[in-house]
User: What shape does this take?
Amino acid sequence: MELKQLITDLRSGNPPPRIINEFIFLCRKIALVQLKRKLSSGRLHTEFFKSPPDDIALDCIADLFQQDHAGNLIQIKTYFESLSLDNISEKDLLTHLRRLVFARVNQSIFRIYNEADPALGKILRNIKLSLEALTNFTEIERFGEQCIAPCSCETFEHLPEVEPSDLELELRQCANCSEHIPALMAKLSVYLRDQTVHSRIVPLMMIAKIFRSLYFEAQVSPEITIDDRLTERDASAILHDVCLKLMNENQPSYVGKGKVDDLVFKNYFDVIEENLNATIIQQDGERMSFFTSLKTLMPELTEKEYKKKHKSRVEYLARIAHKQALKELRKHV
Assistant: This one.
């Protein structure tokens, strides 16, 4: 059945169950496409969800199908009554439906993240409050996802989107990880306006996760005490596994995209693992110099080249490795 006829039947009042079920099936299909797009792009993490994508898709849009005493889908009927079905194409009608479903999916994902990670939910709320109060960003819906871009400047929409890891590195250079959300938003705005190689449109959820990471790193994490329950050899094996897993997870983003060659990327994790062994197991009390360690593996490396090409990447990956190493070690002590 054509969408226009389906909507006409839903608007007419007391639609038969067959029509309602067909419409629910269509909406669920649209929601599932949106969820799979987010999963494939890495913007949606499965650890927050206990159900398969098909069930999540239906849960996200379930409130759209609330019925009154006459069996009408209240929200759907109200939404499409604002459109003239006589003067709209099937394509435009589908666009309106997608906009409605995508918006509901995004709202539900925010709710799920808030329930699973209250800290992330609080950051999202504060970002939205900052957007309303400061008006230094404009909100944009792009490919069914809520995004923001600095006001009063070109969006560079035709350019590729900045990688989350690269944006986090840039913010770490200018943020002390203790600022309030409005201050971080201001620094984000300055960076996006100054750069000209990436789109200035960034997903709201991506920004929230980056801010969450910045705040997490500002917290002091106690070191692990190695005792009889966890030998140094066992701990060293855990650190090796953490580094290997992290290297494999990030290889597509760094080596696969040509940011660094495979051998240099492996060198990164050799010095990161060496650093973890020194600071966590040996507890030297002083972090090793990544430049000095890397230079032993890359004798031609100069300090200038290190600072320009490698410093921010090595330190970023080392912070993640340190956090994951502590998490894994705590499981064994």
Summary: Strands lie at 137-142, 145-150, 202-203. Confidence is low (pLDDT under 50) at residues 220-224. The longest strand covers residues 137-142.
